[in-house]
């Protein structure tokens, strides 16, 4: 172990400690511990983003608090990154699983560890926890992944569409870093490609608006990954792991506006139902970011919504005390923030016991286009007739405004989308003003009967709260690519003009609609650039240089399904 660097009288940091993996590759990490030689439980963070500049403290976890509580913390550069040896690939989840296993077992063998290891961290740092835990290293006793999830559940949340702005931004950042590193080593670098990637990293819209997508500037060079693999879903941006293999307790931290929210929440439910270990879930009004502030989008949810105000570090340390020391308080199975009421709630499961399904039909007098149309949410009537129609033009897509976005130029969270609802390619179905609070807690699903003049197209649904002042605040939204309506493992084209059943899963939420507000469901066919535009041709994604306009119909047999805490009432009378 290298000579320690003292940061405080009772704290030392051992830099670049070498850890051999099973194949002989050396990974390096920094060991933060108190100056005495007492063996202690260790919390491990594995990251590809440079341990030397990683913040020790954040809204998600405070390393200094862990040290004060008697833990040792090890922060490691993953394989091929910064101080660690080996070759790095942007997506190498099986290798990350093995390296996590080997690192945990190496830590447990050190004289400064008491044999108990836990893991913390978010996003990539959370995913490596899942893939490592699935291999069951003997000394890994608990994990606390934040804003992270596995592949299959995440692809379901994206409905078969490609998260374009996020994907372009991430690829550009990774490619730019790789080229700059290569250039610094004296290796040959194509300066044209470097310039194009630098421009896209600064402004992702330069690539997201380009057609065909396979020819996006800079990224088509395949510096990080083959673009065809990325666009087709063959590039595993989130890890596959066996949920049934997770045998250690987990504390999942999720955010209502995080890109991984639904996968994280539903992954917890699967674990809690099937697993013998203790699993816990905390969900707040947060996004995919290094901080967890009270303000998201156009709203501020109050000081208790902040990561610090919610006591995230304290709760993680209590969780680790219980499972690494056998002496901590237990946490409730589920703790969630009810937006609108702006308060924390607890539950024994997700969705909470006491929820019922509220069904509302999509109806109109014949023209639900725009928020000024006559679309309304009503009681479900068997055999309802009629439909609403709009034209979707891929050359003029509906712009992304808020929601679960990451990277790119968009702002995340609950934003006023009333300007979007004035477009004539957006159908709006609105309830009467509420007479009492309505708590929607759980999944929001839209089962639609639709048709299109195209052989493939997208349908996008968004639930909003229309405030008395006219603002329409986005709560959740979802997308389904029609060719994948029967499952992501098969492509089934549409017969033009023939109605089909299709579900849009808008995801999980916990939102109080307040008295005087109205519920609104909007339906359209794009959310760009959060997702790639469907060009309506049915061809392989990324290959088309132009799209086709499509005439879309949404039939009045369509139903909005809400998970409602029954004690809070109903939606009031039909909108007139």
UniProtKB/TrEMBL annotation:
GO molecular function ontology, one term from the record: dipeptidyl-peptidase activity
InterPro entries noted in UniProt: AB_hydrolase_fold, CocE/Ser_esterase, Galactose-bd-like_sf, Xaa-Pro-like_dom, Xaa-Pro_dipept_C
Domain Xaa-Pro dipeptidyl-peptidase C-terminal: 317-565
Keywords noted in UniProt: Hydrolase
NCBIfam families tied to this protein: CocE_NonD
Protein name: Xaa-Pro dipeptidyl-peptidase C-terminal domain-containing protein
Gene source species: Actinocrispum wychmicini
Organismal lineage: Bacteria, Bacillati, Actinomycetota, Actinomycetes, Pseudonocardiales
């Amino acid at each position: 172990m290298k000579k320690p660097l003292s940061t405080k009288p009772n704290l030392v940091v051992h830099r670049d400690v070498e850890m051999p993996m099973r194949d002989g590759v050396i990974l390096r990490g920094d060991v933060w511990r108190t100056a005495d030689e007492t063996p202690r439980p260790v919390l491990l963070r594995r990251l590809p983003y440079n341990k030397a500049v990683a913040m020790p403290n954040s809204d998600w976890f405070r390393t200094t608090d862990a040290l004060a509580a008697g833990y040792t913390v090890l922060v490691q550069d993953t394989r091929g990154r910064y101080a660690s040896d080996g070759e790095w690939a942007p997506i190498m989840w099986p290798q990350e699983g093995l390296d996590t296993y080997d690192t945990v077992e190496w830590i447990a063998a050190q004289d400064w560890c008491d044999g108990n290891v836990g893991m913390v961290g978010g996003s990539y740092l959370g995913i490596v926890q899942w893939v490592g835990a699935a291999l069951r290293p003997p000394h890994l006793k608990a994990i606390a992944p934040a804003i992270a999830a596995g592949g299959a559940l995440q692809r379901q949340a994206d409905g078969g569409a490609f998260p374009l702005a996020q994907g372009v931004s991430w690829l550009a950042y990774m490619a730019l870093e790789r080229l700059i590193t290569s250039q610094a080593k004296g290796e040959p670098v194509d300066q044209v490609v470097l310039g194009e990637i630098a421009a896209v990293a600064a402004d992702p819209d330069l690539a997201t608006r380009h057609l065909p997508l396979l020819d996006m500037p800079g990224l088509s060079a395949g510096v990080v990954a083959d673009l065809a693999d990325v666009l087709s879903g063959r590039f595993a941006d989130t890890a596959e792991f066996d949920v049934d293999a997770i045998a250690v307790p987990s504390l999942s931290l999720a955010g209502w506006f995080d890109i991984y929210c639904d996968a994280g929440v539903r992954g917890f439910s699967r674990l809690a139902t099937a697993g013998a270990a203790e699993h816990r879930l905390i969900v707040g009004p947060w996004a995919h970011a290094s901080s967890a502030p009270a303000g998201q989008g156009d709203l501020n949810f109050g000081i208790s919504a902040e990561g610090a105000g919610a006591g995230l570090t304290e709760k993680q340390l209590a969780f680790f005390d219980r499972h690494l020391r056998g002496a901590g308080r237990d946490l409730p199975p589920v703790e969630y923030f009810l937006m609108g009421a702006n308060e924390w709630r607890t539950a024994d499961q997700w969705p909470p016991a006491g929820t019922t399904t509220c069904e509302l039909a999509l109806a109109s007098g014949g023209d639900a286009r725009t928020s000024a149309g006559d679309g309304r949410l009503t009681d479900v009537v068997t055999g309802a007739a009629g439909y609403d129609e709009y034209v979707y033009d891929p050359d003029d897509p509906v712009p992304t405004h808020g929601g679960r976005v990451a990277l790119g130029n968009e702002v995340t969270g609950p934003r006023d989308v009333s300007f979007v609802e004035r477009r004539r390619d957006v159908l709006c179905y609105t309830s009467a003003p509420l007479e009492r609070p309505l708590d929607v807690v759980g999944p929001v699903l839209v089962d639609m009967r639709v048709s299109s003049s195209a052989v493939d197209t997208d349908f996008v649904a968004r639930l909003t709260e229309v405030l008395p002042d006219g603002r329409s605040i986005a709560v959740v939204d979802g997308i389904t690519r029609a060719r994948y309506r029967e499952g992501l493992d098969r492509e089934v084209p549409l017969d033009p003009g023939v109605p089909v059943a299709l579900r849009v899963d808008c995801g999980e939420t916990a939102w109080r609609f307040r008295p005087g507000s109205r519920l609104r469901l909007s339906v359209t066919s794009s959310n760009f650039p959060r997702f790639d535009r469907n060009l309506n041709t049915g061809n392989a994604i990324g290959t088309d240089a132009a799209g086709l306009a499509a005439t879309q119909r949404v039939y009045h047999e369509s139903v909005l399904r809400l998970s409602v805490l029954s004690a809070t009432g109903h939606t009031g009378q039909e909108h007139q």
